[in-house]
Amino acid sequence: MAFVRACSLGELEEDTPKRVEIDGTPVSVVRTGGEVFAINDICSHANVSLSEGEVEDCAIECWLHGSSFDLRTGKPSGLPATRPVPVYPVQIEGDDVLVSVTQES
Prior knowledge:
By secondary structure, the protein is mostly beta strands. It has strands spanning 4-8, 18-22, 25-32, 35-40, 55-56, 59-61, 68-70, 87-88, 90-93, 96-99. Strands 2-3-4-8 form a four-stranded antiparallel β-sheet, with no helix packed on it. The radius of gyration is 13 Å and the shape is globular. It starts with a strand and ends in a 6-residue tail after the last strand.
């Protein structure tokens, strides 16, 4: 698994998604409840950026139709979305947030 620097911890405001691109993959990095999560930034229902939505109770809400996705699993918790979005492993090294978007073989 290859971890890549996504941003610094200082760039993350609590409950405010930050969009980054890692190896061509759009990722929303979120700091909430003392943890940092990385989830694919594209809604599985409407193909819009999740980082433009709101974060509450460890979920990110799509701004267009209101579907929420669990930041830990990527599973949708409300319609109209029915398919999960990928989540990615996160490591913190000092002030750096590292994310891996690669799959192990």
